[in-house]
Structure prediction request, 125 residues.
Amino acid sequence: VQLQAFGGGLVQSGGSLRLSCAASGFPQNSYQRLGWFRQAPGKEREEVACISSSDGSTVYGRSNQGRFTISRDMAKNTIYLQMNSLRPEDTGVYYCAADWTHYELKGHCTAPRLWGQGTLVTVSS
Prediction:
């Protein structure tokens, strides 16, 4: 299984950014749960959002406050994180993560089995 994240960069406060994560190699007939985490400088990694492959249900971390939206494109095996109204405190490395098994996975990404390489998001004030 591979995860490849794209889309980080420098943006001004109040701006928007969309991150992408292309996933490949999941076992046939498996269920997946994919998500985004972030780690700000000097802080612990935190969950941003997760999405289930079985029904597209989503959950968000406490940092979201309605500004971020996770979505998926099943045909491309890609998830996205649309981030609006960005703030300097959103600065950090954003990681996509995945879990997969033989039964449906929903809810928070509690124990990802695989992490992508991370993409840096910097929000200037």
User: Anything to note?
Assistant: The chain has a mean pLDDT of 95. The chain is about 0% helix and 55% strand. Residues 30 and 102 are 5 Å apart (CA to CA). The longest strand covers residues 92-101.
